Structure formats: structure tokens, C-alpha cells
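Task 17 of the worksheet. Students: predict the tertiary structure of the chain below and write it out as C-alpha cells. Keep your answer in the requested format; marks are given for formatting as well as content.
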Amino acid sequence: MERLGKLLRYLFPTDLVIIIFYVFLTLLNLIYHNRVAQWLDLVTYNIVLIILVFILAYYHKKKGNIFWEQLHFWFLLPFVFLTFKEIYFMVHPIRVVDYDSVLISIDRFIFGTDPTYALMKIANPYLTELLQIVYATFFFLPIILAVDLMLNDRYEDLKYETFLIIYGFTLSYIGYFIVPAVGPRFTLHNFANTNSELPGLFLTNYLREIVNAGESITSTTPNPIAIVQRDVFPSGHTEMTLLVMYLSIRFKTKSRWFFIPDGTLLVFSTVYLRYHYVADVIGGTIFMIFAAWSGIHIYNWWNKKTDEPTYYFIKSNKLQRESELG
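Model answer:
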């Protein structure tokens, strides 16, 4: 136990979140091994990745050079996608039932109609093209903010951004287990008619295919609702976009002037493009608030445990880093 305790002290807060989440996924795979066909492969992958995280954290702190620092940072990109695909093999077999009907009922209770149908009144190819492009920028927003912070030598801010983004992603993945759903493009609309009912100009169809591929389908997949990823509630696009906007404003980065309009349109596009119900957007907003509120406490708690500098939001609304005294 003493040796494990020493090893844990090499972990950064981001590493801690990843390891806890992969332990959680491993336990789910073991508990539901009779439902998850790939459970052994997934458990093996999880164990290998946990070991990798320990190795990267150890050499980052031991060596302290730019190679291990950058490797430790950039491995998070494949982590986010590979974890997203791991839960693809888990959510539907474990949960079985989808909750789209509940989400549709919430939207109808709030608006008295289905928002995706109401938005068809303003739909046109120019707006669709713009929003599909904006929707695609989601994948780059955390990277743009990270590069902005790197270029300005704000590495403590970068470490906190990295933590909060990874923490936010893991929360959204847990949400997929709690409320599995496929979205209005499959339930309220005919998925096969998306391109004809909501046409764009030049890039829309191509960008849609990229999104579809990420969810293990194509525009021509027979019965796509049976195999598409259950990743609707909460809206991860909403949660993570709001987190990036929030951090860019609190950090007072120049990139915030891009994030604010782009992020606003992106959140709107999730419903307009039929990927999400408004209930998902509300859920994503709630998850974002919880992540921002709880994240700083978790981050500082672990840094205190490992004798790293703690990080504070202070009343003047400026970010300040302080070393813990005593």
C-alpha cells in the first residue's frame, strides 16, 4: 500500500479522473460480461491504458522535460475518442432501453411542439451549411484554447483547462449510461431523408458523413437506429462548448472572441441539425455547471494531496494560482 501511495503521488488531477473512470468502465464490463460481447478486449484495453497513464505521469514528473510533458498532454486526444468508442459497445447492451420518448415529452411540455419541426420554418441551405460547419468546429475548440494558452506560456492555466475538459467528457459519458437515447433525426424524422429535407450547399453532406462515421453508421446504413451510438443525453456538444467558452472568458484569452459567437451558434445547431432535443441541451448546460463547480474543488483537493500548487477562482473574477501554505 505504501508503494501504491507513492505511485499515486505522481498523478496529476487529469490522470486521476482518467484512472477512476477506467476502473468504473472495467467494473461495468466485468459485471455485465454476459451482455457486452467485447468485454474481455475492453477490460484488457482499460488495464493497458491505466498503466500507460501511470507511466506518462511518472516520467513527466521525474524527467520534467518537454518531451514527456507534451506526450502526457497530447495523448488525451485519442483518449477522448477511444473512450467514446468503448462506451459504444457498452451502453446499449447494458441499458437495452432508450429514453427518447421521455426527452420528446419534455420538449413538448416546454414548447408545445417538437423544436426540430418548428425550426424547419427557418431552414434554408445557407443556414444549414453554416451551422453544419460550425457544428464540426466542436472537435477543435478545446485544442484551439489549449494552443492559445501554450503560445502565451500559461501552462498552469493549460493544466486546469485539460483537467476540466477531460472531467467534463467523463461526466457526459456517464450521462449516456444514465439516459441512453439516439436523438430526433432517428425518432421524429426519417434519418435517410436528412440530406433532402435539410440540404446544405457544398460541405454539409460530407461533414454529416464524418459525424455519422464517428457514431458507427453512414447515411445509407439499413436500420441505423439499431446500431447508432447512444450519445444524446446530455448534449456533449453543449456541455463541452460551454466549458470552453467559460474558460476562455475567465482566462481573458483573445480566442474568446471566436468562441463566443461560434459556441452560441454551435449550441443552436445541435437542435436545428436534428442531433439533439432541447432537453439534451438543458442537460448539457446542467452538466457544464456541475463540472465547473465541482471540478475546481477536485483539482485543488488532489493537488493538496500531491503537494502541487492549488488553483483558485477569486471574487475579483480573475484566475489566480497560489501555493498552499502550511
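Marker's comment: DSSP finds 17 helices and two strands in the chain. The chain has two domains: 1-95, 97-326.
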